[in-house]
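User: I want to check something. If I give you two sequences, will you return the structure for each one separately, not as a complex?

Assistant: Yes, each is folded on its own. Here is the first sequence with its structure:
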Amino acid sequence: MALFQWDVRVYYEDTDSGGVVYYANYLRFMERARTEWMRSLGFEQDRLLAEQGILFAVRSVSIDYLHPARFNDRLNVTVEMHHRGRASLTLGQSVLRHGDSAGALCTGTVKIACIEAATFRPQPIPDPILKEIVNGG
């Protein structure tokens, strides 16, 4: 899978009283990037639910905060597949500041599981989705 990149700007509402991005908001930025990654592959999460009865849910997250982002920064959030299981994907994600060569502000590993919406039990990732993730992404 190719590296997916999505841009976001830091708004005032994303910051804490110290003027830096509140730690939990990095998870929001990463979630949005994963949604946009799936959308770029042709898969809308609401349609997957309605048409196939499946959801992708976060199973675990590990995150390292390296440098602060601040109000009005332009950020680039990346998604890259590290491992593909039968019913799960392990993704590496980074948040970087545009024009800053200092490296990642935040890095994370996110494991998402494909689950049946009615039971919340693991479901194999449908072949068309796997094909796009592996070949088209």
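And separately, the second sequence with its own structure:
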Amino acid sequence: MEELNRKSVDEFKESEKHTVIAVLENIRSAYNVGSVFRSADAFLIESIYITGYTAKPPHKEITKTALGAQDSVDWNYFATTKEAIEDLRRNEYKVFAVEQVTDSISLEKIHHLPFEKIAFIFGNEVSGVEHETISLCDGCVEIPQFGMKHSLNISVAAGIVLWEAVKCSVKNYH
């Protein structure tokens, strides 16, 4: 671990985090949740907010894909995404849904957004972020896609978006 310069769970918990939060709204697959925990750990983000029927630790499938990240990354559960957004607003976060909608911001342009604290809501694998949730957000961000499908697995989308946000955080605030 030392040669790889990896943090222990305690070192991770004590480290200064990037002020980025991933919100998981009604994610069907616990494997996807575990994968988001791994990305959150890799990029040293502040927290994961779990909402609705999304699986939460401890859970066998989360543990299988998180590989311990469920123990290092802070997380909170909210019955509704609205409650999670209210908490984020109290803590001065800008909130963006990751969704393909009219007037969404292309991901490569988020460095133009004036933020110090940002949260991204990732929606259900089939139906995406709920319309009611989108109406509560500061906007939507979408990942540019050029192939036939124009959709990504939620864990892949989270990895891409979280990395881009951390790049902005590192460049602008650290």
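Because they were folded independently, the notes below concern the second chain alone. The beta strands are 18-25, 45-51, 75-78, 94-98, 105-106, 118-122, 139-142. The mean pLDDT is 91.
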